[in-house]
Request: fold
Amino acid sequence: MQRRQLIQTAGLTALALSMSLASAQDSNKFKIGLILPMTGQQASTGRQIEAAARLYMAQNGDTVAGKKIELIVKDDVATPDVTKRLAQELIVNDKVNVIAGFGVTPAALAAAPLATQSKTPQVVMAAATSSITEASPYIVRSSFTLPQVSVAMGDWAPKNGVKSVVTLVADYGPGNDAEKFFTERFQLNGGKVVEKLRVPLRNPDFAPFLQKVRDLKPDALFVFVPSGAGAAVMKQFLERGMDKAGIRMIATGDVTDDDQLNDMGDGALGVVTSHHYSAAHPSPTNKKFVEAFQKANPKMRPNFMAVGGYDGMRVIYEALKATKGQGGGDALLAAMKGQIFESPRGPVYIDAQTRDIVQDVYLRKVEKKDGQLYNVEFDVIKGVKDPGKAK
Ligand code: DHB
Reply:
């Protein structure tokens, strides 16, 4: 009797021990669900962010505060229905600690209610419509906003011989933000916006729009299109001889995207843009970042998407460290707010009130350096908060 009891107790203890080992093993993991467009029109965004996230992990180790970091990458093809399903699966089945990525605004917005319901921090590494951070109190952004970078161009252009402008933007959140905030500031400075044109996001044909711009003959055309679409705009702009007709191109840096710039040809030389990151940013931190990125990915040059991914991983790692691996979603979120650090783009911080990134915005001109085209910075506006939040 006694002996049987003893054996039973020992058996149960072994079972309990193995169960607690299993859950300890799982609780020794920290899972990041990275939802990105890996195929389709926005695929370069996914490629850049995944490469940067893996670089961050290679440089900083895959164990933080005693937890083994697991990166789960999912392709949403920049389609919000898919984003939503993947976010749900990652949160419910995989029990991820954080969701991250989000290549386009509709994808970031589709996941926001799930982040709220499950109290899972959502780190937006790419999407850049101002209002995104207001869609969930669990959103933290490591990319930028279109108002943040467009206002700088509205100040620069009228001081540099541009008195009349036609705007041409992709017709969705970030394009509408770029149009609104550029136009308001440009007009405030005495500039005239002759016409506002919007092109569809999917498979845009720029030809009829550019013909219209040619006929209107403004001093400059202001452009926003998302990462990956810039080369097509540039090609058609040059093919139509717009520059020779005396129309300058000015844009947000999404157009002279480092992922594509070097293939745009010398016609891109001299184009002035405003943005928060250039691969040519002359800081030691950025030089190290670009070198390491290119060593790990020999055919790529990191762009602003890569930096959003790299810094987003930093925000997650540091939050995990600060909470000593013990915190849930709310504790992690609290530890993400207010982080201050030196990014490859320059000094940044996560505004504790808005959960949005505050950063320097640069004016840059396309120039040739060592036989390659780069966005060379020539002016800086320090510590720019998202102007979209001030309203
Ligand atoms: C968005 C996507 C981009 O590729 C970009 O350059 C800027 C904004 C977006 O959908 O929010």
